[in-house]
Protein: GPI ethanolamine phosphate transferase 2
Organism: Sphaerosporella brunnea
Amino acid sequence: MRGSSSWLLIAAINVLLPVGILLFAKGFFPYKPFLPGLAVFGEEDGPASAPFDKVVFMVVDALRSDFVYGEKSGFKFTQSLISKGAAIPYTAYATSPTVTMPRVKAITTGSIPGFLDVILNLAESDTTSTLVHQDTWLAQIKANGGKLVMYGDDTWLKLFPGTFERSDGTSSFFVSDFTEVDNNVTRHIDDELMRNDWNAMVMHYLGLDHIGHKSGPQSAFMIPKQVEMDGIVERIYTAIEKQPHLHSTLFILAGDHGMNDAGNHGGSGEGETSPALVFMSPKLEKVVALLDNPPKAPTEPINGEFGFYSRIEQSDLAPTITSLLGLPIPKNNLGVMIQELVTMWDVEERADVMMRNARQLCGIVAATYPQFEHLAANLQSAWKTKPCNEMDSEAEELACLWGQARGTYKVWPAEETLEFLTKLCRKYQEKLSGVASNYDLRLMTAGVVVMLTASILAIAKLIPLLGDSTLAELLFPVIAAAYGVMMFASSYVEEEHHFWYWVATGWFMVLFLKEWRSGNSGFGIILIMALLRIVRRWNQTGQKFAGAPDISRSYFSEHTTLLWVLIIITYTEVFMGMSRNCFRRIGSEVAWVFSFTTLLAAFSFKLSFAAYDARELVPSWLMSAAEVLEEVPLVNQARAVFGMIMAGMVYTYICEISSSIASEIDRQHAATALGDLSEVFLLTQTRFTNTPLIFLFRLISGRLSSLANLTASEITVTTLILQHVSFFAFGGANAISSVDLSNAYNGVAGYNVIVVGFLTLVSNWIGPIFWASVAPAQLARRGGGDQPWRRHVIAMTAFYAVVGVAVMAACTALRTHLFIWTVFSPKYLYLMAWCLGFHFVGGLGWGAFMWGINRSI
């Protein structure tokens, strides 16, 4: 009875974790309010002339600026257009989070999306993120009688349901596909260019982004893909030149975001926030001729590594497109009309164009500052006696500037008015973009209180359970406290892996001294530390050195034979374990056949995936086997592996563990067999360059098992440390760009949010799940009834509760910090994943299952 009440309290504490996390998230990640309805021209705006009547908007996902403008670029035709003045190039700054859905929102509405859109970007089936009721340049085209077509990333179809007359969407998450996702777009181009029944054609190509995710920006596939995309540009531009119904078509080539040196995106690195943007049309040659410094190509970056040509805000696209099409600027736009393109109008009209932009931005200022309209009326002429920048408050300054704009419009010379209105719009953009998010501090505080309550209860529950290791009792709170304090420093959050690497080194040194003082050699600890040194070098992670040379990407790219020898050793070692432990009641021959078949299927899938994903990393002596396997679809191969794993687990549990006639030694082997089968699943979900890490972790686990002096509490601390070390060793980081989607579709033919979400969680938490599986077996060997497992669960719960309080407090205290959306918000998302994903699914779910099996033996 006492044990039952204890477990009920532990369960109650764990219920508080998601409650606190979700309450805080609701207040910290609110949807930003939008002005309802569509913008229309007011009486003061008058009719707007339109330099263009159609737009072709070509998005190449992850099109980093140097991919188009660099000397090694495959966009030679695009560069030739820039050289002759038929194209105007920019680097369009994309604010974090640099993932597709928020960036499409920024491009179409001109606003700055909320950070919660990162989650919606992963939830493909989500419908709450639709923009169908918000003002965008697509909505303006449709509202004014235009028709739109779209081909490519189906994010557009989810954001704009019912908007397109014709469409053909493809999922953006099949990241192994470099060709079909793009061919599916290209096959529609010629037919659409012959038609004259559309005003906007949107194309969103995905192949280049997929190459980046799989192989990085230096991949051998990258230049050919750039050449392919440049060929599409040439095909469309040539049609605009030759076909009369396209002569007034504006052609825009844009990246939604860039990518970092590892090929990922989502964060705020320079490569991730620097996509290319090119406006193309034969009409632009006259515009470029009027510029003082017309752009030439190719060129060197002006600012930083990726700052080619002029830098603009990505949100500037929305007012520019609508203005060039003669349409009202979307209501929620924070962008400013691009200045070089203002010269498309006659001198007399240019100030009118910028005044429309200023009025639209003024509407958002009035909605943001409730006192603005009153101040604007009182300060209408204040600029004549006092500079606006000397006003007492920000709202007064903005009101004063608006009064100056209205007072000088049509009075000052056109060029002078244009210059002032441009500065005014930039000022409004700067102030509105910097306005703090609409935090709900009540919900945030409630979340902190709930999590703090969980922390206090967990610690109070943990203290009476301690007692078998003074060493663990001392260091566990020190680790938790130090980790919590670290959450308040952006650099430590970005480079968190160093903390765990240092802690691991220090902890195992302490364990070595303990072994040595007990009269043991401590050789096992020394071997573990040597293996961890290799593990640390496997994947460069963090922010400062992401993409730097490491074992996984750099060393194995030059030593492919060694890579595959290690992979074969890993599968062989797991096979040897399975053949000893599986199907013992049936016979060793069946165990051998089943183990061999399962591991051969798993290895074949890994080889096929590698040959499809990164053919250059498959040595010639394996390529013939890979070519034979190409006949079998990867989806079917993965399903076969998963099916054998599931069949083995079901049989082992029902017929060997739960069987009343099975001997104790048979059940012991069966419990180990379940662990081996789970590791086959983890191997299947692991990037093939990371596969040998499983072998290293098996060696470390074996050494830990041999340490007779290791107490249950020390096992808990050890596995906690190794869970985090392994997370970063596999390439994880506190950045959205580190999320690995390469194995999220293993065995999946179409998008399923639950299955893909589960596979994504497993793929990114391979190491932590491995150690969550090891801990129950290690604890069961120490004996002591349920006490070790109860202590382990409450210790892990206490750790995540304390860390949750620290991260929440940091996000609350630093909510106006410069890095709140680039560092601290991603860290909170990772806290959610660690607590709601790994802790409940891997730690409490799978861990409890494995404990129950090991404890029953």
